[in-house]
Design goal:
The complex is a heterodimer of chains A (about 290) and B (about 325). With about 290 residues, chain A is mostly helical. Chain A is built from eleven helices and two strands. In chain A, helix 6 (about 165-175) crosses helix 8. Chain B has one domain. In chain B, about 75% of the residues lie in helices and about 5% in strands. Chain B has 14 helices and four strands. The longest helix of chain B is centred in the C-terminal third of the chain and has 27 residues, at about 200-225. Chain B is globular, with a radius of gyration of 20 Å. The interface of A and B includes residues 39, 88, 95, 98 and 278 of A.
């Protein structure tokens, strides 16, 4: 087994892992403010990539303008989703929420298929595709973009949740939404915010990964599930633990695909998911909590 | 209980008489699938509607039944009637073993875990090419035969499938009205309360999960023998969602609801042939609309709606 080979798989695993981390944080933000796992999360990742293509191809916008537009439209989608599907729910039992977010997922994916067809598209890389040599391995500039943008987003996220009044209010809701309501926080608005933020983050993930892996109407399922897997490893935290979870998943998957079998690449993520759920449902780094009745 | 039995008999008579009223191989062929899907929806409903435990991986159990039957009757040349219960038992044991850790999880986590399980099974179907034929599928599975009758026509298959489906329905109705059914509903409402009054909630959940998987595997075996060809595409995540849609649309906790949901979702694409790409959008929309406006499913929602429409606003009974 070559050291160079392992380095290569690790490096490319880190950048896919960063994508999983971004998506995973999106899951955690909604989960922490509402207790909901949003099964439609992956579709916003798809929307990010597909909308960027749409803005570039149909509206002829330059790529730097198309990307923020795509993020905005996806965030708007998240807003509509919360207002039209989640909030009006009369019996918000976990099973009903699972079913409605799955329904939303299928609907968004189906609409994307009708609008943009079934073809796979690729987005041009942000800055060329000349490989950069690191040690005995090479990476693409896009890998660096992914890592850099992920770091920026996570830093911005940290700043928002710890240093702005809205962010602090959202954290208050996640600790105890009734108490937050009592001190005058508009809990419903915070829930809405959490959907908007996480769909925007999903869209960013979808945009920065599109030049590497291509995009199509159906990429949301796998990316969404793996993002969830990252969040589970991180114990549904919206901070560093989920980032580490994403990176671990990305690297294991990449090493597994390279060294064991590429056919089973997707199975690796789900086996890890099941193992974590069975053995440490509180995440790799969390402490066990007892159930409240 | 007597009323339940009469209802079932009426249903059975309708089902068995249907071929005389309807003619044409095409519609019979579709009704064979309604039968298989009803069996699957009833299986999932036992878990979701009665015990309140979600599974997004039932297509995997369905597929395991189909592949076990397919492989053992073609490659190994075993007797199909022998393989069928064997496949169901194997899948049941597997579900029982994995049921203990998986059913410890609740709500969203359970949904994700069963989803993951279903996808792993699906990937295995695709990758074990030597046994399953991989993505291109497994063909040449023999039709079932009993004595001198070979079940190779649509009408014969209709009776074959529906006798199994009716048996499964009767079994499910009996189970739902038994001590076990009541215990399951207790778990559904409050697992802690159920345990306090002496229901072994953990074991019962695992048992019903295994039972549900066994029925799904049986449906899978029957599917393999009627289709004579299977491929992984029929057992993917989308089919798990389709099953969920059937159960939710028909009505959680209602056996006839499962039949209604299965019939609707099997017939709808046949009538919407022109709109084939739209069907997935329609499923998604239907799921959302049902959960929002008719959480009880068609079996409860439609009578409620009729009552509301027949009675004027304010429900003046003296008028």
């Amino acid at each position: 087994m070559q050291f160079d080979q392992i380095l290569q798989y690790t490096l490319s695993g880190l950048s896919t892992g960063a994508i999983y981390a971004l998506i995973g944080i999106g899951f955690s933000i909604i989960y922490n403010s509402t207790g909901i796992i949003n099964f439609a999360q992956g579709e916003f990742v798809m929307l990010g990539g597909m909308l960027t293509l749409f803005f570039i191809g149909v509206l002829k916008l330059p790529i730097w303008a198309a990307m923020p537009c795509a993020v905005l439209v996806s965030a708007l989608g998240g807003l509509l989703f919360e207002r039209l599907a989640i909030r009006p729910l009369r019996q918000p039992t976990p099973i009903n929420i699972v079913i409605i977010t799955i329904g939303g997922r299928i609907l968004i994916r189906g609409l994307a298929m009708l609008l943009w067809g079934k073809d796979t598209h690729s987005l041009p890389p942000f800055s060329g595709d000349d490989p950069i040599a690191i040690g005995g391995a090479t990476i693409l500039p896009q890998h660096l973009w992914i890592l850099a943008i992920t770091v920026v987003i996570i830093a911005a996220n940290k700043f928002f949740f710890y240093h702005t009044i809205s962010g602090k209010a959202m954290r208050a809701c996640s600790y105890n939404s009734r108490a937050a309501g009592l001190v005058g926080i508009d809990v419903r608005r915070m829930v809405l915010f959490s959907f908007v933020i996480s769909s925007a983050m999903g869209a960013v993930a979808g945009i920065i990964v599109a030049p590497l892996t291509m995009t199509a109407y159906d990429v949301g399922v796998m990316l969404g599930l793996k993002g969830f897997c990252a969040a589970i490893i991180g114990g549904m935290s919206s901070g560093v633990a989920t980032v580490v979870g994403g990176l671990i998943l990305g690297v294991l998957e990449s090493l597994g695909a390279g060294l064991i079998s590429s056919g089973y690449k997707d199975a690796i993520a789900f086996i890890i998911l099941l193992l974590i759920l069975f053995i440490r449902p509180q995440g790799l780094f969390g402490k066990a909590e007892s159930e409240r009745v | 209980m007597k009323k339940e039995l009469l209802k079932f008999l009426a249903f059975a008579v309708l089902v068995l008489a249907a071929p005389y009223a309807l003619s044409g191989g095409y519609i019979m062929n579709v009704l064979v699938f309604v039968g298989i899907n009803t069996m699957l929806a009833v299986a999932l409903n036992l878990l979701l509607g009665y015990a309140g435990q979600i599974s997004l991986g039932h297509a995997g159990f369905f597929g395991l039944g189909a592949y076990l039957s397919g492989i053992l009757t073609t490659t190994a040349g075993w007797n199909p009637w022998l393989v069928m219960p064997l496949a169901a038992a194997l899948v049941g044991v597997m579900a029982f073993v994995i049921g203990f850790p998986i059913l410890k999880l609740k709500g969203h986590y359970l949904a994700m875990a069963t989803l993951g399980l279903g996808i792993i099974i699906y990937i295995v179907f695709n990758e074990t090419v030597d046994y399953t034929g991989g993505p291109s599928g497994l063909s040449g599975i023999p039709n079932l035969s009993a004595g001198s009758i070979t079940f190779d026509s649509d009408v014969k298959n209709y009776y074959l499938i529906w006798s199994f489906t009716l048996a499964v329905c009767l079994f499910a109705i009996n189970l739902a009205n038994s001590r076990v059914g009541r215990a399951l509903r207790a778990i559904h409402d409050s697992e802690v309360a159920a345990r306090v009054v002496g229901v072994n909630a953990r074991l019962l959940k695992v048992q019903i999960f295994a039972l549900s998987a066994m029925i799904s595997a049986l449906a899978g075996s029957l599917y393999a023998h009627t289709m004579t060809f299977i491929s992984p595409a029929s057992f993917g995540f989308n089919f798990s969602i389709e099953l969920l849609t059937m159960v939710v649309i028909g009505g959680l906790g209602s056996i006839y609801g499962s039949f209604l949901g299965a019939a609707l979702l099997t017939l709808l694409p046949e009538f919407l042939r022109a709109a084939q790409d739209y069907d997935i959008v329609i499923y998604g929309g239907m799921l959302m609309v049902m959960v929002m406006f008719m959480p009880g499913g068609l079996v409860r929602g439609v009578p409620d709606l009729v009552r509301k429409l027949v009675k004027p606003r304010g429900g003046d009974r003296h008028a």
